[in-house]
Design goal:
This protein has 726 residues and is mostly helical. It contains 24 helices and 9 strands. It folds into 4 domains: 30 residues, no CATH class; 348 residues, Poly(a)-polymerase, middle domain, CATH 1.10.1410; 233 residues, Helix Hairpins; 41 residues, no CATH class.
């Protein structure tokens, strides 16, 4: 079915993707005004948000993994780029991260160009077995994206993104003002992530943009939950990357709130979606938290440019959304609109999900239904694995044999990799030597080429001059000097004194004149022949000189090459030219790929060696303490620590400990509350409320009993009452 809507122009597929938006554009959707949302629904929504946030709180093992990954990357990157600094920013540092949050890092490094740094950094990360490495060097802030192989934590490293560090500080300050600000942001991010509208790479809002939008909403409640932290009188200006920014942040932000807001989380979420759906702040305003309230488009000078999202999707996939369609101003860089990454399809996805949540909450749907995972295939679940699962049933001898085999293979791989590295270094050395020789002899080679190139045309000129000379000589038949002598002789005969007794006849005189003119013609040809001969002689001399210079340059090149061979004997049988140098470069590149592959294999073997050695230590300690029991006999096996009954360890407190802490008035974490709810709630605390005095008395008695001597002793002799009186 390919029918298009006459009103919207949506195809059948587009109508199925955005049904609510399509109905809205066709004036077939009546949006509820929120009056049907009762207090019971709001209370339930608040409780659901608490449960979600409790489940989405990053666990201690995950935080440990993420911190360990950061420390590893920090050591690796800073060691690779001397003088650099790798810092954390984003949701991880602002304490606005969900359990599935990624790791945002900023590399501060001024020594090289960002593109060059990214290229080198990608190579370093590839050697560290990172996955899905993606370099985005064309962005305003160059960035590299990848995923850690072990933890599967996605990581973004940007280059010199200094302003993001200040943005992180600002968001952390907002989260510290009121717990509800942090909870509302996390709840919104959870919804946006679940419904797949929280990915700038896919054309929707980024997590950072959704955070700003929620803060703006909390600034517009009555009274405000979130103040305008950037509204201080004492302004702070700082140059970042050559541009001056206003980085003013009020230290005592709570003092900016004149009146206390008592709304629940549910009410704040309803307020947010009512704003987004019914009031539609983007139509005439710009989201601006540094202004404390949405700023008019006219004041911001950000017009609503065409095409709109509904028109853009029907105009082709390459059509871009109009500028400032969903404007969100960066709090420091006021020229930066965070909505510029939104694509037409992404804009309609956002509107569709806003409509869906608002209609659903008015229909009484639960948060679980409203935040149902839209694309389950994109969520990668990383299960906790037993590091020693395959070793627990093996004997010590088998593990030692595996360790020996690993050590042998490791040594072989190391030897092979050393040989490959040596060969690669030789190729690089030869290439550098050849290129050095070519640089040293570049002037000689240029001179040699110029001389060689001049020989052939000069030889051609010599042949031409010789040919012309011979042709002229054939026409004349006598040398130039003889022609000149005859000319003088004939001229004297014609112009000298006349002997009346030997007056030549008219015929004789005519012959003399004819001969004179013929000699003149021959003299002209002879002059040309002589000129051609002189040119030929000159060319021969130049040619001899060029050949002599050619031999000199060849001798000099030979001397330089001989000196190079003496210093590098390996170049003795190698032709010195650019083709050879290029070939050795290619060989070095191929060897580098092989070395990287072998390095991964060595790294795997090294990890396996460490794992085997660790299990031998662990199992030996268990065997040492397992059979030792006071008074003899064999200690009973603990099923929790047994080799065959291992389960992933969860660092969760015991219900008894939490109940005891709650009964005595101690502080409880979110994890403690979860354990308490799972074990029966607050009722379990009141049932078993201990008496502090009796508890202390029992503890003291236990301590005294433990200090008693258990050896046999003779007591005092018993006496009767009569005896004692005496």
């Amino acid at each position: 079915m390919t029918e298009e809507c006459e009103i919207t122009g949506f195809s059948h597929q587009q109508q199925q993707r955005w049904p609510l938006v399509h109905q809205y554009l066709c004036d077939q959707l009546e949006l509820p005004d929120g009056s049907e949302i009762d207090q019971e629904s709001i209370l339930q929504l608040s409780q659901d948000i608490d449960k979600v946030l409790l489940a989405q709180t990053p666990t201690k093992p995950f935080l440990k993994k993420r911190n360990g990954l950061y420390e590893h990357l920090k050591r690796t990157v800073e060691r690779r780029f001397k003088g650099s600094s790798l810092k954390r920013f984003g949701s991880t540092e602002s304490n606005l991260s969900l359990s599935s949050g990624d790791l945002d890092l900023c590399l501060l490094f001024d020594a090289q160009k960002p593109k060059k740094v990214l290229k080198s950094l990608s190579s370093t990360l590839r050697n560290q077995d990172m996955e899905d490495i993606q370099v985005i060097s064309s962005a305003k802030v160059p960035i590299i994206k990848f995923t850690d192989e072990r933890t599967k934590i996605p990581v973004d490293i940007s280059i010199n993104n200094t302003l993001a560090l200040h943005n992180t500080t600002l968001l952390r300050k907002y989260g510290d003002i009121d717990q509800r600000i942090r909870q509302s942001i996390l709840a919104l991010k959870y919804w946006a992530t679940q419904r797949d509208v929280c990915d700038a790479a896919k054309g929707t809002f980024s997590s950072y943009a959704w955070t700003l939008i929620m803060i703006q909403s909390l600034q517009t409640t009555s009274p405000p939950v979130a103040p305008n932290i950037q509204s201080g009188k004492d302004r702070t200006h700082l140059k970042v990357d050559g541009i001056e920014y206003d980085l003013t942040m009020t230290e005592n932000a709570e003092s900016l709130l004149k009146e206390s807001n008592t709304q629940s989380l549910g009410e704040l979420m309803v307020h947010f979606f009512r704003q987004m759906v019914l009031e539609r702040p983007w139509d005439g305003h710009v989201i601006s938290i540094r202004n404390g309230a949405p700023m008019t488009r006219k004041a911001k000078k950000w017009k609503y440019a065409k095409p709109h999202a509904s028109k853009a999707v029907t105009m082709g996939s390459k059509t871009r959304l109009g500028l400032h369609s969903f404007p969100v101003e960066d709090p420091f860089n006021h020229d930066h609109d965070l909505s510029r990454v939104i694509r037409p399809a992404g804009a309609l996805d956002i509107q569709e999900e806003l409509f869906r949540f608002w209609i659903g909450i008015n229909e009484g749907k639960t948060l679980e239904e409203l935040c149902e995972l839209k694309n389950p295939e994109r969520i990668q679940v990383v299960e906790e694995k037993d590091l020693f699962e395959d070793l627990r049933q093996l004997k010590k001898e088998d593990i030692e044999r595996m360790l020996n085999e690993n050590a042998t293979e490791y040594a072989e791989k190391e030897e092979l990799m050393t040989a490959l590295q040596t060969e690669r270094q030789n190729n690089i050395k030869i290439s550098q030597a050849l290129r050095g020789h070519m640089e040293e002899t570049s002037g000689l080679r240029k001179e040699h080429r110029a001389l060689v190139r001049s020989l052939r045309p000069r030889s051609q000129k010599m042949e031409l001059a010789q040919k012309q000379r011979d042709e002229y000589n054939q026409q004349v038949g006598m040398p130039l000097y003889r022609i000149r002598e005859l000319l003088v002789e004939v001229y004297n005969n014609l112009t000298g004194d006349i002997d009346f007794f030997q007056v030549p006849s008219l015929q004789r005189e005519e012959e003399q004149f004819g001969w004179f003119f013929e000699l003149q013609a021959m003299h002209a040809v002879a002059l040309k022949a002589d000129a051609a001969h002189q040119e030929f002689i000159s060319l021969v001399r130049e040619q001899k000189s060029a050949v002599k210079d050619l031999k000199i340059t060849e001798n000099k090149q030979t001397e330089v090459l001989a000196e190079l061979v003496r210093s590098e004997p390996i170049l003795a049988d190698i032709r010195s030219d650019f083709g050879e140098a290029r070939q050795f470069d290619q060989n070095a590149h191929k060897l580098n790929k092989v070395i990287q592959k072998r390095r991964k294999e060595v790294r795997v073997l090294r990890r396996e060696k460490g794992r085997l050695e660790a299990w031998l230590r662990v199992s030996s300690r268990k065997n040492t303490h397992r059979n030792s029991k006071p008074g003899g006999g064999k200690r009973e096996r603990n099923p929790k620590s047994g080799q065959g009954n291992w389960k992933p360890r969860h660092n969760r407190p015991k219900p008894e400990e939490v109940q005891k802490r709650a009964a005595t008035g101690g502080s409880l974490s979110l994890t403690d509350l979860d354990v308490l709810l799972r074990s029966g709630g607050l009722a379990s605390v009141t049932k078993s409320k201990p008496n502090p005095k009796s508890a202390r008395r029992a503890e003291r008695k236990k301590k005294q009993n433990s200090n008693r001597q258990l050896s046999a002793q003779r007591g005092e002799r018993a006496q009767s009452k009569k005896g004692r009186k005496e």
